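Reminder to self: keep the SMILES exactly as supplied, no canonicalising. Ligand is magnesium ion.
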Amino acid sequence: MAVLPLDPPDPLSLATAPPRDESPADRWAREQREAQGRLISEQIDAQIKAEKLAMKKRGKPIKILLLGQSESGKSTTVKNFQLAYAYSSFLQERSAWRAVIHLNLVRSVNTILDSSEATLMPDLDLDADDEDEDDEDDASASAASTSSTLTDRHRALQLRLAPLRHVQRDLERSLGAATSDAPEYAGDAAPWARLEGGRGAREAFVTSRYGWKTALRRGDEAMSDGECEPQAQNAAEVIASCAEDMIALWTDSGVQAVLSRRKVKSRLEEGPGFLNDVARVAKRDYEPSDEDVVRARLRTMGVQEYRFKFERGPDAGRDWLLYDVGGARSSRHAWAPYFDDINAIIFLAPISCFDERLAEDRRVNRLQDSLLLWKAVCSSKLLRNVQLILFLNKCDLLQKKISRGVRVANSVPSYGDRPNDARSVAKYFRHQFKEVLVRQSPEKRTFYAYFTSVVDTKATAITVAAGMCSNSGLLSHVGVSCRLGQFVMGFSVAT
Ligand SMILES: Nc1nc2c(ncn2[C@@H]2O[C@H](COP(=O)(O)OP(=O)(O)OP(=O)(O)O)[C@@H](O)[C@H]2O)c(=O)[nH]1
Ligand SMILES: [Mg+2]
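Structure tokens returned for the bound complex:
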């Protein structure tokens, strides 16, 4: 039998072994050092263990997906979350929104210029009958249609405001693709529903939510924080120099009559055009307020991820991930990869849109599109364990529309001869959505619905509380208490 040689001594033990001629005093000092080292090591181990335990206790992040058609208010809802739970990041991004707000304003002014130009030069008026969405301001419309009220003063305003056309182009170029309109799309309301089995890779769809913000800051290395690229700065200069003329145009009674006749007045008043804020927004040192940022409109491209940590309440310490998607029909195929492991969906359905058509497919009524989408979400087998929370949004606009005398039954024949007031209309629409949930859900689920107006940040103080089923790990309850409905509509409807 072969005898193996003894293993050579371990070099580490050799290096750390005490010297052979160690004195008692040296030995005492060494043992003190070693004891100290062991203590520190034990403390580190204990810290790691405590952190692991805390992480386990906090659990996986809660994932919430915001769904709904384009312009339903998804990104506005995210901004409310940021205001409530990530105010420092909201503040950091605030000055970047100035260019978006300027673009929103300039687009509105250019829309007014288009309308008045067509009136001044009727030969160019190619789309006078194009506006068909609601029967607003009919009395003033017919009065205005009998005589053109525009004069040389309006021609002069047209000329002086002409540079805003270039400003719009420059800002669109700076801000990128999100400023383009949603492309026309004649496909399904829920293109992913047919493909539920074959889901794509999620990463393919995630887009940077900093894209347009960093684009604004590129170029000049020397720019300090909050400054933006020269194009946006030039735009701000031109806007400041046009302030008085923009106010004169918007407040002119002849122009208002033309806008009424062409049925764009209420859309301009109620959209994110900042037309009633020109004096403030056009100032050279303008800094957007929280409310301005919430109202500003920029289309979401792809899917954007937001991370929040809740510092208060029963869920303190837990991470929440919010996914904000582009809602245009052509973007909806990108939603499916996010259905896999989410806990809840906040579905935004703008109920003021009952008489409007989809921008991407003018044949489709917007409320009908929301109902089709809701049906696809409720009936999805992939989403059967996902909690659905419905925001019946834009209640403020519903109220305004009804107050203007728009009749719901003209666009929604099933409404019949029910009372044409905002409360009854909202309740009716809520019932429609509830019916879909009850009929289409693969398993019984609770109907959580809120009347919202998410541009109102004071009222939309979103507080979120979640409880986890300790045994299944499934979300058992997500309560989104929004202090909504009551203030906007002057009533509340129990959910
Ligand atoms: N008056 C009013 N305006 C709202 C409300 N909710 C959203 N808006 C406005 O509607 C516009 C569209 O809102 P967004 O939050 O950008 O819509 P979105 O669902 O994210 O749209 P996409 O990104 O295109 O899918 C913005 O100008 C908002 O200010 C509301 O409750 N009331
Ligand atoms: Mg959006």
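Points to follow up:
Residues 124-147, 198-206, 218-226, 465-495 have pLDDT under 50 and may be disordered.
The beta strands are 62-67, 303-309, 319-325, 344-350, 387-393, 448-451, 463-468, 475-481.
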